[in-house]
Design a protein that fits this description.
264 residues, seven-stranded mixed β-sheet, alpha/beta, 2-enoyl-CoA Hydratase, Chain A, domain 1, 9 helices, two-stranded antiparallel ribbon
Length: 264
């Protein structure tokens, strides 16, 4: 009886596994971790049609977040797709990034400048710092680099943390110096400043507002607001009087010609 019970359980388990394998294609469960990792490395994520990927009609590439290998794979895959649909229609790259890896940023730059013939517009939304700022300035076709009015831009030289043998660190220092020279040379090409001027600017973190970035030729345009009117208008009341009233009583502020009620 014991042997029969054991055989029965084993047969049932085998049948269950066979049935599971046969219906794996119909399951809603995610693929194994290894498969998902392979997809990511191949640049298959995010999927077409998702919010991060964008639609073909929009012709937008989003660089939102850290510029790493996964982001680079997505950007290159997306650019290839849009270029294959049309090699002349403009492509927009929207950037909201605090930066990332120098090698990956340079990889995106090299791909765009050697493989993509489309006019490209770049737009900063929120922030563009480090490699994010580098891509904002260098990927855009001249005259097509823009930023939103309240964005923060920051440029600086490459950095790295030292660890390991002295000979390894010496070699790494040489590599980082080469990256620094490449960044300065490319930025010089797109801004009109000399390498020496850019090196001096980026000795420390170099922050700019949107208007400063335009004045210094790191972008071409600051996007104007569409909505101009204030929510409430009190033309006859000096701002200091209105502010005083609001501090004393948050719910009411009166002007000299008529009452206006502002509710929190």
């Amino acid at each position: 009886m014991k042997n029969r019970t054991t055989w029965t359980l084993g047969a049932a388990l085998s049948a269950f596994l066979t049935a599971s394998a046969a219906t794996a294609g119909e399951s809603n469960l995610p693929p194994p971790l290894a498969s998902r990792a392979q997809e990511n490395v191949a640049g298959a994520w995010p999927k077409p049609g998702t919010a991060k990927y964008g639609t073909d009609d929009e012709r937008i590439v989003l660089i939102y977040g850290k510029i790493d290998r996964e982001m680079t794979a997505y950007v290159i895959k997306r650019l290839r797709q849009l270029n294959s649909l049309s090699s002349s229609a403009p492509i927009a790259i929207h950037i909201n990034s605090g930066g990332g890896e120098v090698d990956e940023g340079l990889a995106i730059y090299d791909f765009v400048t050697t493989q993509i013939s489309n006019p490209i517009s770049t737009l900063c939304i929120g922030e563009a710092q480090s490699m994010g700022a580098f891509l904002l300035t260098t990927l855009g076709t001249p005259g097509m680099r823009s930023t939103m009015p309240n964005c923060t831009l920051m440029y600086h030289q490459p950095s790295w943390s030292a660890q390991g043998r002295v000979t390894d660190m010496v070699g790494r220092t040489s590599l980082v110096n080469g990256n620094k020279k490449a960044i300065e040379t490319i930025l010089s090409r797109h801004t009109g400043y000399t390498r020496a001027e850019l090196a001096e600017m980026m000795r420390e973190d170099f922050y700019m507002t949107a208007s400063e970035a335009k004045a210094m030729n790191f972008v071409d345009h600051v996007s104007p607001p569409i909505r101009h009117e204030a929510a409430a208008r009190l033309p006859d009341t000096p701002p200091s009087v209105c502010a005083s009233e609001l501090r004393r009583n948050w719910s009411i502020c009166r002007n000299s010609s008529a009452s206006a009620r502002l509710r929190h």
